From TrEMBL:
InterPro entries: AAA+_ATPase (IPR003593), ABC_transporter-like_ATP-bd (IPR003439), ABC_transporter_ATP-binding (IPR050763), P-loop_NTPase (IPR027417). The lineage of its organism: Bacteria, Bacillati, Actinomycetota, Actinomycetes, Micrococcales. Its main location: membrane. This is ABC transporter ATP-binding protein. Transmembrane segments: none annotated. It comes from the Bacteria.
């Protein structure tokens, strides 16, 4: 699929991050091939968000490197960020702008032609079924609406690589289906997607590559079939992470 010497879509090498005594990400190496739909899974606190934040240049690692299509995100941030589309944390979006204003402002900040910004914003708002909310303040959006406008922000400049931390969290089933279609279209057009999720069925349905992270380390990574090893992703996940999923009981329920 990829030319042998073409850089990977995303290459993480020896990434490490500590917060005080806590090692959040511990020597993470990951190669995300071009054109892949890559799922990142792991228990709560595994280090997914921290890894993805370092991968896109939002959080400086203690050590290690991250390159996007061959551009180092710290040494060559403008080139890296031009080809990257990142789902912003919905809470960090400017709250006192309307959805339409937000897209207009960020599009111009990206250096896009105003006519292109207008056309793309209108199309994104329409496809994401947000036309009625376009004139309302982001502060008044529901959690799912913020997630959708954040996705529009990630897509607006036409990136080559999308990095999405839990893009389906809090969105309704119809919107989730719309987002799946948009992401499939992005892959068909030659783009690469890496996204984190806790929903194994979704990852199995969408992804061709997966990595399982636990305690800040990569437990397994490769094609979906390699990681599953003949089981469901749920089973492989429980095996790799070493947790029992069906034994949680509260003592006072029995009395
Ligand atoms: N800013 C921070 N300060 C202190 N500790 C942090 C900070 N950010 C993350 N951590 C810790 O680092 C570890 C990894 O957190 P991270 O958010 O990357 O996990 P995650 O896999 O995304 O979890 P979840 O699935 O619950 O979203 C956790 O133990 C978390 O408490």
């Amino acid at each position: 699929m990829n030319a042998p010497d073409a850089p990977a879509a995303l290459e993480l090498h020896g990434l490490r991050k500590t917060f005080g005594d806590k090692v959040a990400v511990d020597d993470v190496d990951l190669t995300i091939p071009r054109g892949s739909f890559f799922g990142l899974v792991g228990p709560n606190g595994a280090g997914k968000t921290t890894s993805l934040s370092m991968a896109v240049g939002l959080l400086r690692p203690d050590r290690g490197t991250a390159t996007v299509l061959g551009h180092d995100v710290w040494r060559d941030p403008v080139a890296a960020k031009t080809v990257l589309g990142v789902l912003p944390d919905a809470e960090s979006l400017p709250q006192r702008l309307t959805g339409a204003e937000l897209l207009g402002y960020l599009g111009l900040l990206r250096g896009l032609d105003p006519a292109v910004v207008t056309a793309r914003s209108a199309e994104l708002l329409q496809v994401l079924d947000m036309q009625d909310a376009a004139g309302r303040l982001v502060a008044d959006y529901s959690t799912g609406m913020r997630k959708k406008i954040a996705l529009a922000v990630a897509l607006l400049h036409g990136p080559d690589v999308l990095v999405l931390d839990e893009p389906f969290e809090a969105v309704d089933p119809v919107s989730a289906s719309t987002i799946r279609s948009i992401l499939h279209g992005f892959i068909r057009s030659g783009g690469t997607i890496v996204f984190s999720s806790h929903v194994m069925a979704l990852v199995e349905q969408l992804c061709d590559h997966v990595a399982v992270l636990a305690n800040g380390r990569v437990r397994s990574a490769g094609s979906l079939d390699e990681v599953r090893g003949g089981h469901t992703l749920d089973e492989a996940f429980a095996d790799l992470v070493g947790t029992s999923v069906d034994r949680a009981e509260l003592s006072w329920f029995a009395s």
